[in-house]
Structures are given as C-alpha cells and as structure tokens.
Amino acid sequence: MFSATCEVLLNIIDDGATSAQRAEADAAYEALTSLVFVFILHLMRKVLEISDMLCQTLQQQSQDILNAMHLVSSPKSLLQKLRDEGWNDLIVKVRSFCDSINIPISDLNAHYVARKGRARHQHDDITLEHHYKIDIFNTMIDTQLQELNDKFNDHTIELLTLSSALDPKEMHASFSIDDICQLNHKFYPSDFAEHEMMQLRMQFEHFDHVRQLLEFKSLETISDLCQWLVKTRKSEIYPLVYRVVTLILTLPVSTATTERSFSVMNIIKNKFRNNIEDEFLSNCLLLYIEKEIAETFDVDSIINDFCDMKE
C-alpha cells in the first residue's frame, strides 16, 4: 500500500494536469518518505494493534460487561510493556523498512533541530534519538494510557465490579452481599428509598439459596438472569434484586450503536442536511438506529398505510 501510494504521487508529480497538483503531490511525497512519517506510521500500527481487540469488542451490539472489564487491563499492560521494552524492536523495524524503500536514516546521535529552524528554547543537547523516543514514542503511549485510565477510572471499575458480582458465572463461585449492597448504595441511591436499601440486603440473603438451583447454574449472562427472574416469576418474590439487575443491564459499556449513528451525521452534513427539517432528520436517524426493526417492515405495506391515512 505504501509503495503504491508513492508510485501514484510520483506519477502526479511527473504528469499532473496543473502546477498546483504537481506541487501538492511533491509535498505529500516528501512528507510520506520522511523518517518521521515512517517512524510514526510503525508506532501507530503497533499501538492500534494493541487496542484493536478492545475497540472491536466494545463496539459489538451485545457485550458481556464482565468481559469488558477484563479486556481493559490487557491493553494497558501491553502498552506499558511496549513503552518499557519496545523501543529497540521498533527502531529495527523502521530501519529495515527505510532500507527497503531507500529512505535515508539520519544518525540518531546527531543534534535534533526543529523542522522550521532551531526553536528559541530548544536545548543543544537534544539528540534525534531523544526526540523520537521521548517526544514521540513515550508521549504517544502515555497519551493512550491516560485515555484508558480516564475512560476506565476507579469509579468505572467499581461500577463494573458491581456488574460482575451479579454475573451468574461469578455467583456460582462467590456471592458477596456486603459488596453488592455497598456499591449499590454508592451508585444507585436515588433508585432506592432508605427502607428499600435495608430490605435489599435481606432479599439478597434469601436469594443466596437460589443460586444453588440447577436451572440457575445454566445461566451464563446477566441478561439471562434477568429473563429467568421474569420467567420464573422470582422477580415478584425478589423485586429489589430484580431492580438491581435491570439497572445493571442499562450500563452503556457494551454498544456503540449511538456513537456510530452520530458518526453517520458527518456524512450527511452538507447542503441537503442544512435544508431539511429537524423532524425529518430525527426520523431518518431513528430509522438508522433501529434499522433491524425497520427491515422487518414491507415497503408496500407502509405505502398502503400512508394512503389510508390520507383518506
């Protein structure tokens, strides 16, 4: 892909229709074949490879919350390992790539000079290696780690811990009523009256024997547990336990449907978008978000219903 892109740019440089096209292609080719671009390209590839599994999993329509929590620690440890031990391997790969396409590599021990001349406050003892390793390599990885820590901070992890405590597979092995009640009081105080908080503990103590039932042991997810409580009418016997389970199911950990839907808005933000009414735009967005339901409707039946409304 890299070689093909370079070849296209060289063709435009030689045969571009206008001088502006040729100049833009020349500038793009110069940037593309620079050491800094190749270095960042390889670094970004490694970082994205590490975070890809977490990103893809969190974008699934239905994601087990417990697995989501477990997936967070893996990218963090791999990114930290890359920061601590990955510099030398990355440089070797960058050198090999540059040699294969004849990109000159500067001496990393040479003094680094900012691209647009020596910066006013730049220290003379800064080398190219220092710039690439400290200013780019470490900074990029630290930024990614900070993003993960911000998204999955202690508050979030505690909330996910509450979720995992109600996961049927985890409940088979352990069942800490104290932890559940404490976390529930912390995160859902407005959903339970004070007397319900006291009743909740007792309901969980009675619920403890339920997890010993054979049919309970066949449950695998919190969603299964919620459905089973309704099916067996135990949601009526343990209404507060059922309320906690339903609250946990509303956690926005699993799906990126809404995020993807708003990303679609960028595609239609044009002249047509500016001329349509908000109600029509809202209806279009609703159809996109609920496209699985929309696909079950027959177009002819919609037309007939519309005609009936007109009559």
Key descriptive features of the protein:
311 residues; mainly alpha; 3 domains; 19 helices; flat; HATC_C_dom; HAT C-terminal dimerisation domain-containing protein; AtLOH3-like; RNaseH-like_sf; protein dimerization activity
Structural overview:
It is built from 19 helices and no strands. The N and C termini lie far apart (59 Å). It is mainly alpha-helical. It has helices spanning 2-15, 19-32, 35-58, 65-85, 87-100, 128-151, 154-165, 168-173, 177-187, 194-207, 214-217, 222-231, 234-237, 239-249, 257-265, 271-275, 278-289, 291-294, 299-310. It folds into 3 domains: 34-152, no CATH class; 155-249, no CATH class; 257-310, no CATH class. The model has no long low-confidence stretch (mean pLDDT 80). The longest helix has 24 residues, at 35-58. It is flat and about 75 Å long.
Could you list the spans in which at least 5 consecutive residues all have pLDDT below 50?
A: none
Number of strands: 0
Distance between the termini: 59 Å
Main sheet attributes: strand count, strand direction, barrel closure: none
GO molecular function, one term: protein dimerization activity
Protein name: HAT C-terminal dimerisation domain-containing protein
Pfam family, one: Dimer_Tnp_hAT
InterPro entries: AtLOH3-like, HATC_C_dom, RNaseH-like_sf
